[in-house]
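Before going further, it is useful to explain how the protein records used in this thesis are read. An example of such a record is reproduced below.

***
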Amino acid sequence: MPVRLQIPAQLLLLVLLPLFAACGNRVRIESAETLPVDAMYAEAKRALDNDEVDRAVKFYERLVARFPYGRYHEQAQIELAYALYLDHKPEEALSAINRFIKIYPTHARIDYAYYLRGLVNFNRRIGLLEKYFSDDITRRDLQYVRQSFQDFGELLNKFPESKYAADARMRMLHLRNGLANAELMVANYYFRRGAYIAAANRAKFLIETYQEAPASADALAVMAESYRRIGRTQLGDETAQVLKLNYPDHPYLVGRWPAKRSKWRQLNPFSS
């Protein structure tokens, strides 16, 4: 015979009262069709602040649909874009951002819209490996990396004094270095397969496109050795001289490869 637990009525009431209070204060999503605009916006913002992203998205979407004009509509548009970004829906977030930029080009927070667009692309993930190599740009879809670089560049072009400018610059440096590393990997790939002209051209592209990136040193080494291997010794020597002037301690200049597998050893196409 099962034992029946005896719970005092007072204790049960104490447990259930907060739940009833929460339910009483929580507006049902179905009620969004009858709420006034200010109440609907407040509910959406409350949900967003409480990390109830899916709920926030639903309320923002209903507000935008029901009230197509006014300051609440404008604010809801940009906050909806942010909520969609948090909800891991990059395509929908970008669609909302681009719509906002097109409709409200002079909005007081338009710089944030440009910044958010860059942020969405900056954090896009395309595969399982990226969960383990999230900081390695070369393991991402470079289309999104380049787009993010362009997005942040557009923000800095249009709004150099924006409060988001400093963060955008730091992210662009990170993206630039990652894109340069990706180009270096391609140049190394060509070199290892004996496609020395292609290797030299790719390294040259890296140097011209991503100036001051750390990978430029290795790119100069790839160029110098590629030119030498196709018989263009003078051009190879000139490139090596540029390497020496800018990176006098680069291991390529002395033909001394570290015994340990350093980062240069991993990228170096000349080592066995």
Remarks:
- The first helix runs from residue 9 to 25.
- The radius of gyration is 28 Å.
- The chain has twelve helices and no strands.
- Residues 121 and 147 are 7 Å apart (CA to CA).
